Structures are given as C-alpha cells and as structure tokens.
From TrEMBL:
Residues 433-755 form the Cobalamin-independent methionine synthase MetE C-terminal/archaeal domain. GO terms for biological process: methionine biosynthetic process; methylation. Belongs to the vitamin-B12 independent methionine synthase family. Its cofactor is Zn(2+). This is 5-methyltetrahydropteroyltriglutamate--homocysteine methyltransferase. Keywords: Amino-acid biosynthesis, Metal-binding, Methionine biosynthesis, Methyltransferase, Repeat, Transferase, Zinc. SUPFAM superfamilies: UROD/MetE-like (SSF51726). It comes from Bremerella cremea. The gene is metE.
Length: 762
C-alpha cells in the first residue's frame, strides 16, 4: 500500500498564535512556561490536523520557536562562545540571543541571517570554528517525538543532515570548507540515530537539501562518507533522503546509491526526473513522490499527479511509494477555509496547507483503492481547473500587447551613471556620507487600528486620510530632528511592501489569513497573482507628494520592484514567470514616472528578492538574471537623469550576482551588512562596483540598539574599501517592526556616527 506522508507543516498557527506568544514573551508579558505551553498547543494541533486528514507519517521536528537551522546547530552543541555567557541564564535566553541579539544583562548582536535557498524564509547561519567540538543536545527533540507518536505511531522525525547543516553555516576562522568538521560531527548523528532507534522510530526524514545544488566532488564524497558511516547506526530505522526546490539532475545517481531506504523527488519543480529515477531505484528501495506544490497556492491537477504516481506504481509497486508534497508546507498558508474575502471563483482554484493534505491523501487512496474510490473528488478538481483555464479574468489582450511592444530603448536611462551623478548632486546638495533610512517606520498599534477600522468601514475615508497625514508629518519632523539627510514618508498606509501593491494592481487578489513565516515571529501575507497585471491609478504619489510638501529636504518615493513583487507573491503557474514580471514592471514604471512628475527627486525601487529568485542551478541562472535585470530597468528607466534611483537588497549572498546588480544601473544600492560585519562589501570591492552604496550599519531585525562607537567602527571599515564620496549611511532594512524608542535611539546614534566619520574625512 502507498503511504500518505508530509515533509513539514506551517509553524505559526492558523491565527498566528505562535507569533503572538513569542512577541508577548519578548515583551515580558508572559513567562517561559506560558510560551512553551502555547507553542506545544500549536504543534499538537498541527499533528492532529495531519492525522485527521489521513497522513500516516506525520513529520515531527519541523516545528520551531524561531528557526530549524538554529535548532539543529544547538542540537549538535554548536553554540558560539559569545552566547555561552553565564548571564544568559536559561536555554531560551541563549536561543533568542542567538536569533535576535540581547541587551538584557549582556550586550550581544544577533547571529547572521540569510535566505533559505530560493525562498523568502530566513534562517540563522550557524557559526563554526576550526576548534569546533560537538555534543548531542536532543532531549527536547526526543520528547516531541514521543508526544507525536501518541497522535500517530508512525510519526516521522525530520533531521537536517550533517552535510547540509555544515554547508549552511560559516567557518569563521578559516578559508577551508566547513566540511573539514564532518568527521567530528558524525559521532553526534550516530548517537542521535541510536536514540531514534530506542524511541521506536521506523522512518526518519533525512533532509539534505544541498542535493538540489551543483555539487563539487568534495560535497558528493561527504554525502557518501556521512551516510556510509552512519548506516551502521540505523538499526531498524529507515531513512528517506529528502531534497526539494529543484530536480536532482546529475545528483540523482548519487542519491540512489546512498544507503537510504527511500529517495524523495520534487516532481513539481522537476517532473522530468521520475523516468530516470525509475531506472536507478534499487530493489527494495522506495520512492517519495513530491506531487503537491508546497510553495504555491494553486490546486494540484490531481489527474496529472495521479498519472505520475501510477507510472511509478506500475514500475515498482505501490507498496514502495510514499506520497508527499514537493517540500515542507512551511511555505504555504495554513487553511483556505478561513478565507472569507476571496471571491468564490478564484477561491475554487486554490489550496492552502490543510487542503494540500487532502490532495496527498486523495492520490494515496486512488493508488490503493482505484480511481473509482475518489471519482467525485477527481471530477470536482478537474472542473475547477477547467474554469481557471477558460476564465476571461486570467487574460487581458491589451496588457499582452503592451508587453509585446517593449523595446530596448525602454530599458535604458538617457545618460550613464557619471552624467547622472553630477546632475543629481547638483540637485540634491547632500553632505558626504548622506544619511537615510530604507523606507518604513514603526507601525504602532494606533496605525494598525486605524487601518483596520478603515478597512471595516468604521473610519470614513477622509478621517483616515487625515490620520495618515498626521502620522506622516510627525514622522517627517522626527527625521528632521534626528538630522537625517534624505527622508521617507514612513509608509503608514501600507500593511506590507508587496501586499500593498497587490491590493491596488489588477490581476491580484489578497487573502485575509494567508500568512506564511518569513523569520521568527515575522509573517507575511503574499498576494495571489491570478491574471494579467496592470495599474488602475497612482498608488503612492499622494502620500509622497504630501510628505515632500512638509520639508525642504528630499523625500524618497518608495516602490517595490517587479522581481520582488513577483517572488513575494503566490505567482500564477500557467505562464512563464518572466511574462508576469514584465507586466508588473510596466505598472511600476508608470508609478515612478508619476512620482517624478509630482516633484519627487529620489525614488527607491526595492529589490530584496533579486537574489532569492535566482535558480539553484547555474545553468538556469543566466536566463533568469537577464529577464530580472530587464524588468528592473523597465521599471526604473522612464525618468530623467537628475532623478536619483535607489534600490535595496538584504539578507542574502550577493557575490555571485554582482554583475547583474551592476547591470541594474541603480544610482544607489543599500544592502544589509551589519550582521556580517561589512563582510558583504568585500565582493563589491573585488568586483569594483561602480555606483553608490549604502551598507547597513545596524541590524533592524534585532531589538538591540547599537552604540555610536559600534557604527563608527563599521563605517570606518566601509571607508577603507569604498571611496567616501560613493558611500551612504543607513540601517539594514525598514523599521516597520520596531518601536519608536529604539528606532530614535538607533538613528540618533547612526547620525552621530556619520558625523564623526565625516569629521575624520575633512
């Protein structure tokens, strides 16, 4: 019999219960006992839902209070020395200090954070040392497994494999690969497998997501070596080797030769690999078929997915098949049933995490009992897919004609950077090391309440406009008092940098409860792109124009770039992504032109997802970067040379795409560099990046307020490698999630740091 399985489930809760518990704990409103009890309730509800849906092998260990990579670094005893401080008296103190930084008793910055492969989920980057030692710290993990087994005896632990764990981290004191630590780490995994055996686990999900990447010979050998050494500790445990987000491609033979009982195939993003896998699967080895898209919200074509499963069953037998999503459902919203504001037609095309569980069990039932057993479900599914294919709402000939008419001239500013720089400096008259912020300012309870009241019709439009103008003016005055050089309006009218635009662009719908985790307690609600996209009217001009009317200092117009809107939305899957991206770019181009005509001299078009959208395999990257760069240039090249274009990127490794970043031809780029202590600047220096750069001098994802001297030190590092006339001073990212007291303290220190370094340059 085929087995219904799952690779992971959203951690946040149907109503973001985990988020609220975490934030209450961080604010001191609840204690550790209440936090852990609330987290346990969310975790156990997830298990119950999966069991009730018919999932046999429910995952355990996929849940986390902050991040699963951080969890595994701690489980193998890899706590950096700075966080072993005796003033961090509890496990939770240490855990959250590593994730968020600390100023409670001991002043510690957060550990580095970056993107999880090509998703908008952020993980904490483990820190390794050449003197690194490891020990097993898995009691809590084993307790969770015992609790899950009470819900489903076949509960399946999720383990982040040793090779991926090492490679996701950084060896801080050596240029060597972190894999030099593998033989020290493997005994800890041997102990873990022995304890999983003792706990009665039959299957273990062995995540080695690096298998989706281009692997060098050393990494291939590390995978062989690790699993061969660990095979002696397996006992009765069967491993399902799991990778996702991409086809295994040339790594497929390697995956099947390893001593594992099953290999997972992401058949959503690599459907072509099934035929090859059926040639390599060994006698007695099982296949885990990732047939349900764990990263998007569209209903699965069950007839098509079932046909793939039937092909595999015919070749090796259904008793050797595990039916699964393509990846963890962490990247999906929780439950479509909670949606009341998406119209019925579009809603009929969608499936969130709980609905995806039903799709898994439908395919499993069809394999085990025949299609007749699920005939009604298959018919309903086919009908919904047909209405989507034929709906007039998904295709707009006029928009497609506009895309077809895009010419090379639309992708280029009139003058080159040196010409533009001269005109912009004459217009803006900024000091050396000009200070600015990335865009958003704190979204206070009053701001959120007013926006909610307006949406419910409880606050008239005119009163809401007056409220926003009052908040904007107060924000402008605060920035002037702090001494910032280039101001922003604060974005109080915006719920999110992507969702806000999705609400105003034709071709999108926005969910009410479609939240997904970005990092820690930070959740985002990606809009859903279902049709061709166009702008109905100006989206940002009135507030930007009002803010500029309040001050003589330049105010940035704030836009989200087309690639980021694409990547941070749930994108239609019935046409190439680049076509959708061009449609968005045309809308942002219209908006940037309108901002300029309204008197805005600095326009920031944020593209933090440019690196995130990069395909995992190098052979696919050139095409992506070409259309992604063209989309940004299409959005930004309709304006005059004296108008300065900024862009912003954060929390990812830029070095491999620096030529593409330079090709964007933005006048100024701001980047996250504080958690890496300006390490990311090295790539820009080696590449000789030609335009202006604003390296972030403090980490906004932490509540910690750094001292002026700390920021002076970072700025000095920057000035040593980048000419001061090409440097800006700014935080790492927007300030939406922070509170005003810490924001004002940090920005005051930032301005003082800029002034001190200016004086040293004089």
């Amino acid at each position: 019999m085929a087995i219904a399985t799952n690779l992971g489930f959203p951690r946040i809760g149907a109503k973001r219960e985990l988020k609220w518990q975490l934030e209450k704990y961080w604010q001191g409103k609840i204690g550790a006992e209440a936090l852990l009890a609330g987290a346990a309730e969310v975790r156990e509800t997830n298990w119950q839902w999966q069991a009730e849906a018919g999932i046999t092998q429910i995952p355990v260990g996929d849940f986390s209070l902050y991040d699963h990579v951080l969890d595994w670094a701690i489980r193998v005893g890899a706590v950096p020395g700075a966080y072993q401080n005796g003033k961090l008296v509890s496990h939770l103190d240490r855990y959250f200090a590593m994730a968020r930084g600390s100023q409670q008793g001991v002043d510690l910055p957060a550990m580095e954070m970056t993107k999880w492969f090509n998703t908008n989920y952020h993980y904490i980057v483990p820190e390794w040392s050449v003197e690194q030692t490891f020990h097993l710290d898995a009691d809590a993990f084993l307790q969770d497994i015992a609790a899950a087994q009470q819900v489903s005896p076949a509960a399946r632990p999720v383990v982040l494999g040793p090779v991926s764990l090492l490679l996701l981290g950084k060896l801080k004191d050596s240029e060597a690969s972190p894999l030099v630590l593998l033989d020290r780490l493997l005994p800890v995994y041997e102990q873990l497998l022995q304890r999983l055996n003792a706990a009665g686990c039959k299957w273990v999900q062995w995540d080695e997501p690096v298998l989706a990447l281009d692997l060098d010979l050393a990494t291939q050998e590390a995978l062989r070596h690790s699993l061969q050494q660990l095979s002696g500790s397996l006992g009765n445990v069967k491993l399902v080797l799991t990778s996702y987000f991409e086809s295994l491609r040339e790594n497929l033979p390697l995956a099947f030769e390893l001593p594992v009982s099953a290999v997972h195939l992401d058949l959503v993003y690599g459907p072509e690999q099934l035929a090859e896998a059926l040639r390599y699967v060994r006698d007695g080895q099982s296949l885990s078929l990732g047939l349900i898209d764990g990263r998007n919200v569209w209903r699965t074509d069950l007839t098509k997915a079932l046909a793939q499963a039937e092909t595999a069953a015919e070749a090796i037998g259904s008793d050797r098949l595990l039916i699964a999503p393509s990846c963890s459902l962490l990247h999906s919203p929780v439950d479509l049933a909670a949606e009341t504001e998406i119209d019925d037609e579009v809603k009929s095309w969608l499936a969130f995490a709980r609905q995806k569980l039903d799709e898994i069990t439908t395919i499993t039932t069809a394999l085990n009992s025949g299609r007749a057993a699920v005939a009604e479900t298959l018919a309903l599914n086919a009908g919904a897919l047909e209405t989507r294919r034929t709906s007039i709402r998904t295709h707009n000939p006029a928009i497609r004609d506009r895309v077809a008419a895009i010419s090379p001239a639309n992708l280029k500013r009139t003058g080159d950077y040196t010409v533009r720089q001269s005109q912009q400096r004459a217009r803006l008259k900024l000091p050396p090391l000009p200070t600015t912020t990335i865009g958003s300012f704190p979204q206070t309870a009053a701001v959120r309440q007013a926006r909610a009241a307006f949406r419910k019709g409880e606050l008239p439009a005119e009163q809401y406009r007056q409220f926003l103008e009052t908040e904007t003016e107060a924000c402008i005055r605060r920035q002037e008092a702090l001494g910032l050089d280039v101001l922003v309006h604060g974005e109080f009218e915006r719920n999110d940098m992507v969702e806000y635009f999705g609400e105003q662009l034709e071709g999108f719908v926005v969910s009410k409860n479609g939240w997904v985790q970005s990092y820690g307690s930070r959740c985002v609600k990606p809009p859903i792109i279902f049709g061709d996209i166009h702008r109905l009217s100006a989206m940002t001009v009135p507030m930007a124009q009002y803010a500029q009317s309040l001050t003589d200092r330049p105010v940035k117009g704030m836009l989200t770039g087309p690639v980021t809107i694409l990547c941070w939305s749930f994108v239609r899957d019935d046409q190439p992504r680049w076509v959708t991206c061009q449609q968005i770019a045309l809308a942002i181009r219209e908006e940037s032109i309108d901002l300029e005509q309204a008197g805005i001299g600095v326009i920031q078009i944020d593209e933090p997802a440019l690196r995130e959208g990069l395909p995992l395999r190098k052979s696919d990257q050139t095409d992506y970067l070409a259309w992604a760069v063209d989309a940004f240039r299409l959005a930004s090249s309709g304006i005059r040379d004296e108008t300065q274009i900024h862009t912003h990127m954060c929390y990812c490794e830029f070095n491999e795409i620096l030529p593409a970043i330079a090709a964007l031809d933005a006048d100024v780029i701001s980047i996250e560099t504080s958690r890496s202590q300006m390490e990311l600047l090295d790539g820009f220096v080696e590449f000789r990046y030609p335009n202006e750069i604003g390296p972030g001098v403090y980490d906004i994802h932490s509540p910690r307020v750094p001292a002026t001297t700390e920021m002076v030190g970072l700025l000095k590092k920057a000035v040593e490698v980048i000419p001061a006339e090409r440097l800006w001073v700014n935080p790492d990212c927007g300030l939406k999630t922070r509170g005003w007291p810490e924001v004002e303290a940090a920005l005051r220190a930032m301005v003082e740091a800029a002034q001190e370094v200016r004086s040293l340059l004089a």
